[in-house]
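Worked example 2:
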Amino acid sequence: QVQLVESGGGLVQAGGSLRLSCVASGRTFSTYTMAWFRQAPGKEREFVARISSAGGATYYADSVKGRFTISRDNAKSTVYLQMNNLRPEDTAVYYCAARVGALVESWGQGTQVTVSS
């Protein structure tokens, strides 16, 4: 099983940008589809973006399309989430996840993103 550690969260004003990172260790990172999820207070965890194992295919939730970009560097066992034009409704704890098929095998511990208006 792969272990995941996120970083890069913080407090930013609306319209600002942040880049989240998630470093993996353990099993071979390049075999996993990687994804980002988020959970706002009082809400269920929701999908944000995913990227295929080789990085050739990406998919985004409608709410972040055009503002967020997911990428990965398999040589560094790292997946990124570049978040631009942030909105207060993007405030949440962001989690990275390693998927095998449609199932999430591992979750990170989460990193807090707070967007002030």
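The CA atoms of residues 37 and 47 lie 4 Å apart. The mean pLDDT is 96.
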